[in-house]
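Possible regression after last week's pipeline update?

I re-ran a chain I had predicted before the update to compare outputs. Posting the input and the new output here so someone can diff against the archived version. Not blocking, just want to make sure nothing changed silently.
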Amino acid sequence: MYITIQETAEHLGMPIEQVRKYVLEGRIRSVYDGEQFLINKAQFGRYFEQLELLKQQIDEWRSEPIPPDRDIKDED
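New output (post-update):
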């Protein structure tokens, strides 16, 4: 299913101009039909999967307990 730049911006929660910039730079793949750029919605599935995995890793890192202080004294 193909969506427009405006629909892509709403889907990603980004400003329309930023999505348009990414399309023109080639960071978001698209097809130009002679009137507008169309973007395959399925390509963002992997992006959201990776984003959720990253959020889980950050949460795990934050919930990890802080190791006890070893209080090493320098005895010169």
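Follow-up from reviewer: compared with the archived run. The radius of gyration is 22 Å. Marking as no regression found.
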